[in-house]
Amino acid sequence: MEDRRMALVGYDGAELLDIACVTTSLTLANRLGARPAYGVSVATPGNRAIVCDSGLRLDGRRSLERLKGPLDTLIVSGGLGHEAAADNPRIVGHVRRLARESRRVASVCTGATVLAAAGLLNGKRATTHWWYAEQLAAAYPDVTVDPAPIYVRDGRVSTSAGVTSALDLTLAFIEEDHGAQLARAVARGLVTYLQRPGNQAQMSMFTATPAPTNNLVGRAVDHIAGHLAGDLTATTLAAEAGVGERHLTRLFVEHLGRTPGRYVRDARTEAAAHLLTSTSLSVANVAARCGFKTAETLRQAFVSRYGIPPSRYRATQGGPAT
User: Fold this and answer.
1) Which of 101, 195, 245, 246 could lock onto 187 through a cystine, CB 3.0 to 4.6 A?
2) What phi and psi values does residue 80 have, to the nearest 5 degrees?
3) Which residues partner with 76 through β-bridges?
4) Which is nearest to 157 in space by CA: 124, 184, 179, 186?
5) How far apart are CA 110 and CA 126, in angstroms?
């Protein structure tokens, strides 16, 4: 049985983690029994070693110019060198050529810029690292850029968000090719607690911190994170912060892009997602721990944020059974 031929395009200034997330996941899938196995190679211009944006050198395994299809999947890595790669007609031309000979085409992070330069995202919805979303949208108006999801699949073309979202996209490919059981085994082997669905937001509530210049908002966010099951109404938060409710709302919208009530709901929902996949608590108990009055309230928040109910989320993300 022939391997699934997978080619990952690298170039000077590529992000090493963009590449490693893909190659390590697929190699582990092979060790865990993927059949047909993945035949993974890194293709670089002239088969030369590339200098990643961290300064580390990475040897290529294939010459981009000499690589020929058919390929199962073509993936373009991202990195700080993405603009130079997108401006290089040889790289763009060979990506365009290989895309015609591939069943699936994908990019990691800012690799979407190269796909866009090759015309492969025209008329499609795509994502990229949130830092570069506006830049991509401005440079390629025929692409519908959505900066929120961790990955987007539009037909046979997929784009993923920043850096480690490559793990999520690769796990999705493994599940598509070999089933959910193998994908979850790979996720466990990589010690990633959650195989996230593509529509999950790039920025976690607990890593997207407010502007450091506003200590009041920072203190309010810290209070929310430590008291999810408590009284977190806007009135209570304003009293805790020692300001008026309208003033607190203005600061939240200015620094976090949402009202205190919306921030609290999102934080509780994300915390519930973590408990669903890392504990065997019932949905009702998860709801109570995260400050939702009832399991139905949690269900409504979950459907709004993730598009599926909590029970389905737990089942598809490999969480402990209740």
Assistant:
1) 195
2) -65, -20
3) 9, 107
4) 124
5) 11
Structure confidence by residue, pLDDT tens digits, 113-147: 999 999 999 999 999 998 899 999 999 999 999 88
The amino acid at residue 176 is E
Average pLDDT over residues 244-261: 91
CA nearest neighbour of 204 among 225, 174, 188:
225
Helix axes 260-278, 295-306, angle to 10 degrees: 100
Long-range contacts (CB closer than 8 Å, 24 or more residues apart) made by 44-49: 44/9, 44/10, 44/11, 45/11, 45/88, 45/90, 45/91
* φ, ψ at 149 (rounded to 5°): -70, 160
Q: Is the pLDDT of residue 213 over 70?
A: no
Q: Is 45 left (phi over 0), alpha (psi -120 to 50) or beta?
A: beta
Closest CA to 151 of 188, 189, 107: 107
CA torsion angle for 141, 146, 151, 157 (degrees, to 10)? Answer: -30
Intra-chain end-to-end CA distance of the chain, in Å? 40
In 3-state terms, what secondary structure has residue 23? helix
Residue with tokens 């909590």: 310
Question: Cα dist. 213→62, 197, 217, 223 in Å?
Answer: 48, 33, 9, 17
Residue with token string 């934080």: 267
| Residues in Cβ contact with 141 at an 8 Å cutoff, skipping those fewer than 6 apart | none
Q: Which of the residue ranges 22-26, 207-211, 220-224 has the most confident prediction, judged by mean pLDDT?
A: 22-26
Res 318: pLDDT: 54
The residues that are catalytic are 109
